[in-house]
Amino acid sequence: MYDVSTRKRALALVAQGRSLNSVSRETGISRSAIRSWQDRIEPLTRMAHPDPGPPSNESAYAYLLGLYFGDGCISPHPRGGYYLRIACADAWPGLIEECREAIGKVRPGVGVYAAQKQGCVAVTSYSRSWPALFPQHGPGKKHERRIALEPWQQAIVDAHPWEFIRGLIHSDGCRITNWTTRVVAGERKRYEYPRYFFTNVSDDIRRLYTDTLDTLGVEWTLCTRNGNPFNISVARKASVALMDAHVGPEY
Predict the structure, then answer these.
(1) pTM (2 d.p.)
(2) Residue 74 has pLDDT above 60, yes or no
(3) pLDDT tens digits, 190-228
(4) 3-state class percentages of the chain: helix first, strand second, coil last, to nearest 5
(5) d(CA 60, CA 164)
């Protein structure tokens, strides 16, 4: 639900001759919402966000929360309610199915469908209660606003930390094989080792990831590339083994 000042600002940009696409990108408001306001500005009388109570399955919620922080968004429907969308690459059909299952476990009875996009599938579900379940929802990009867990969310992450880590890795992470060379007995030999990477532009989301790794005893390092501190690496053998046991690669 957007307040009147937000609606008037968006419509003022449109009145300047801007396209709906450009206004949507600048404000973080969907084109359909802006279009619906062009004939009426005053707030519509709508049902407030219903309190859905705690997630039906906390383990599934911790995983879905990680997916949402990486590749998820919530957008309003012009006639009320909200869509939760999680983008999943076509290359990982197992991830797509696990995402659908997680949504169904968090909100039993809601419809879940996969909308094919170029190179990915948007796993989508409609409900009036998504903003209450994901209070980090807001206009604009996640890295441009503060992201912090509510106490009840932190309690779920504390109880299911590996599921939260899995969701983050499955959305914005990967497991790769690095290699280097060493001289052994005068002969240079190739040495390979596995490594996990997590990459996210949001300082807050990276901090949630590393704070959770700390509680699990997983050692990590910050990898700055081209001056950007967006990459978190897990490369020590014991820590990679922990990640393999509880996370594993996408599939």
Answers:
(1) 0.76
(2) yes
(3) 777 789 999 999 999 999 999 999 999 999 999 887 778
(4) 45, 25, 30
(5) 9
Q: Are 87 and 122 in contact (CB under 8 A)?
A: yes
From residue 26, give the alpha-carbon distance in Å to each of 158, 192, 219: 35, 45, 38
Q: Please say if the pLDDT value at position 85 is more than 80.
A: yes
Rounded to the nearest 10 degrees, how much is the dihedral formed by the CA atoms of 117, 120, 77, 47?
Answer: 160
Q: How far apart, in whole angstroms, are the C-alpha atoms of residue 32 and residue 78? A: 6
* Contact between 81 and 127 (Cβ < 8 Å): yes
Q: Is the pLDDT of residue 170 over 80?
A: yes
Q: Are 55 and 103 in contact (CB under 8 A)?
A: no
Residues near 19 by beta carbon (within 8 Å), at least 6 away in sequence: none
Structure tokens at 93: 């059909």
Residues 6+ apart with CB under 8 A from 99: 64, 67, 86, 88, 123
Q: In the numeric block, which tokens belong to residue 211?
A: 């704070």
Please give the Cα distance from 125 to 50 (Å, whole number).
16
pLDDT tier, 47 (very low <50, low <70, confident <90, very high otherwise): very low
- What b/e string do you get for 129-142 counting C-beta neighbours within 10 Å, with b at 16 or more? bbbbbbebbeeeeb
